[in-house]
Amino acid sequence: MEDVLNKISEIVFFAVTVNGTDVPLVVFWLICAGVIFTAYTGFINIRGFKQGIDLVRGKYSDPNDAGEVSHFQALATAVSGTVGLGNISGVAVAITLGGPGAMFWMIMAGFLGMTTKFVECMLGVMYRRQHADGSVSGGPMYYLRDGVAQVTKMPVLGKVLAAAFAIFCVGGALGGGNMVQSNQATVQLIKATGGKQDSPLAGQELWIGIAFAILVGVVIIGGIKSIAKVTEKIVPFMAVLYITACLIVILGNIGSIPDAIGKVFDGAFTGAGAAGGVIGALMVGFQRAAFSNEAGVGSASIAHSAVKTNEPATEGFVAILEPFIDTIVICSMTALTIIITGVYTQEDASDGVALTSDAFESVIPWFPSVLAIAVTLFAFSTMISWSYYGMKGIGYLFGDNVIAENAFKVVFCIFTVIGSVLTLKAVLDFGDAMVFAMAVPNVIGLYILARVMKKEYTGYLGRIKSGEIQPVK
């Protein structure tokens, strides 16, 4: 079994060596999508940023529109699905391998990812289905099946792409969106309370997992409305908590800020300190950012599809803010914290979350406890959001069957417990592989539907400009 899981992971993460750095082709796939759509939309990630903020503030929100959650709730749910351990451990890996210059390329990847999110989240609303009880189902499964069939006149192609996406989504929800999160959160809780030798939680992984599963179950049983109510409170709190902690570390080394920024730009264009030089810094930075914000994976489109709106383009503008928060703000804070404290240059430097923990501890000895709280919140919020993605994936495969969706919720909670006690690395890698396999059918669909997408948002902007669409407050 382990050999099969390893083989699947090797296929998804098949890598080519560029200047001494192994780069998975799926990362190229996502970067290309970001570059092409940013050019095709005329840098909508810049032009549409203010419109996204206005929509989140409710300037154009009509509570009578179809859908289940507000623009802010949809954004909070999607952000909670992407802001996870990758923002802490993944960034630490990027700085360790790519040097300070990786931070610059991570920001560039977040900038391009803003456009990819714009495209996929708008299409998710365009092709969503509204049920008799007022609930909605949307996301890549629906625009791949219906949109691709509409444009290509090849319904079989659309159904194949949609089914592949749904299967990968269910696997990704149970693996990368659930087991990986509960596993790593459990590890950090034990480490922050004394480690395997001294922590009172050591050996209690099963009960930690059961506690996580109960908390997750209580939230997800109420569906997207319950998840959105929790994420709209957790996401701002955990973001402020983590950013404040990073700022304290940065301000504690305020005299080193100019030098740290100099190292970022120097490393980005000269490759100083990076394995593989400039190419190494660039590739590592893009790779970790792509893994963090999931732009092009299609996952966030499922959450955004539940928004209350009659204008699909609105949610595209709101989605622009997601990679900005996830990558340009939070990942950058982690990177700057590590660079400015210099912990990555130590001879016996740690890796992953431990490196970020060392950076925190260098300023205040008990600060790793704050990091443990942030890690737990990041993991919990990711799990509840991914439960919704997986539920919609299984619902699509079984014809929007409510019984199937509820059965998935139970299975999801069981896998939360399994993740906490699991030590089998192959299963954890398989979960990540399923998440990024979603990008293959999704991005194919985005290219096919590019003209449809452009017609939709240009029409919306035209109605705003002509005054046909007026602010509601």
Secondary-structure map:
Layout: H1 2-12, E1 15-18, E2 21-24, H2 25-40, H3 44-47, H4 49-56, H5 71-82, H6 89-98, H7 101-126, E3 129-130, E4 136-137, H8 140-152, H9 155-192, H10 195-198, H11 205-220, H12 223-251, H13 257-270, H14 277-293, H15 299-304, H16 312-319, H17 321-341, H18 353-361, H19 367-397, H20 402-421, H21 425-437, H22 439-448, H23 450-466
Antiparallel strand pairs: 1-2, 3-4
Helix pairs in contact: 1-21, 2-7, 2-22, 4-16, 5-12, 5-17, 5-19, 6-14, 6-17, 7-13, 7-14, 7-16, 7-17, 8-9, 8-22, 9-19, 9-20, 9-21, 9-22, 11-19, 11-20, 12-17, 12-19, 13-14, 16-23, 17-18, 19-20
What does this structure look like?
The chain has 473 residues and is mainly alpha-helical. 75% of the residues lie in helices and 3% in strands. It contains 23 helices and four strands. The strands form two sheets. The protein has a two-stranded antiparallel ribbon with strand order 1-2. It has a two-stranded antiparallel ribbon with strand order 3-4. Strand 3 and strand 4 form a beta hairpin. Helix 8 (140-152) packs across helix 22 (439-448) and helix 11 runs antiparallel to helix 20 (402-421). The longest helix has 38 residues, at 155-192. It is globular. It starts with a helix and ends in a 7-residue tail after the last helix. The mean pLDDT is 88.
Q: How helix-rich are the residues, as a percent range? A: over 70%
Give the radius of gyration. Answer: 21 Å
Uncertain parts: none
Number of discrete helical segments: 23
Which structural class should the secondary elements be placed in? mainly alpha
Shape summary = globular
What's the arrangement of strands in the largest beta sheet?
1-2
**What is the makeup of the main sheet?**
2 strands, antiparallel
How large is the share of residues in beta strands?
under 5%
SSE pattern, N- to C-terminal: HEEHHHHHHEEHHHHHHHHHHHHHHHH
The CA-CA distance between the termini, in Å, is 57 Å
Q: Let me know the average pLDDT.
A: 88
List how many beta strands DSSP finds: 4
